[in-house]
Every structure is written in structure tokens, then in C-alpha cells.
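Go through the following before class.
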Amino acid sequence: MANPDGQWEWEGQSGKKYVYLVDGIDQQFQDIPGNYIYAKEASPDGWTPIYIGETGEGFGKRFAGHEKGPCIEENGATHIHTHYNTSLEVRLAEESDLRDKWDPVCNKE
């Protein structure tokens, strides 16, 4: 599961590490921009990313009716990891770095 403080560190292809907050998939989210990862627990000490994305409109708006919802659900996502960030350039770089390393199943469609 997440660390006791509710965080998880994801490493990108570049080796850079990003700290994400971990919440249940049904959590209510504020409309703050950032990066997010739909994930499922892979072991007591790990996660499998199902979908990696970014949003400028805010998490609350983005997660409502997500177009990848069926794929995310079919692949067993149980949590959403979030990393708040207002810079579009930084969000896109982070998303690309993480996707390049993890190659999530729902990013392939």
C-alpha cells in the first residue's frame, strides 16, 4: 500500500522521482491541475499503473466520466495517485517520463 503518510514515489524513465498522494478511486477531488495515475495494488509494497495522465482543468472535472473509464475499470484500478502541478510544460514532461517507463495498458488504446 501507500506509505503511512499516504504517498507513493514513482520513478520515470529518466530516473527522476515524483511523489504522488494516494487515494481510493471513489475519493472526491478538488479542481486543481496536475498529473494522475490510476493504479492497482501489485503487492503490499508496489503498484501497477493502469493509466497515466495530466489535466489542466482539475482532477474533479477530469475524473468525472473519464473517456478511459471502461479500460481503467476492466483492468482493476482501485486507487488514484495525484501530483498537483500548475505548469503545463512540467505536467506534460512528467506524464511522458512516467509513461515511457511504465507503459500502462490503458494508455495504449
Summary: Residues 7-107 form a domain with the GIY-YIG endonuclease fold (CATH 3.40.1440.10). The beta strands are 7-11, 17-24, 34-43, 46-55, 79-84. The chain is about 25% helix and 35% strand.
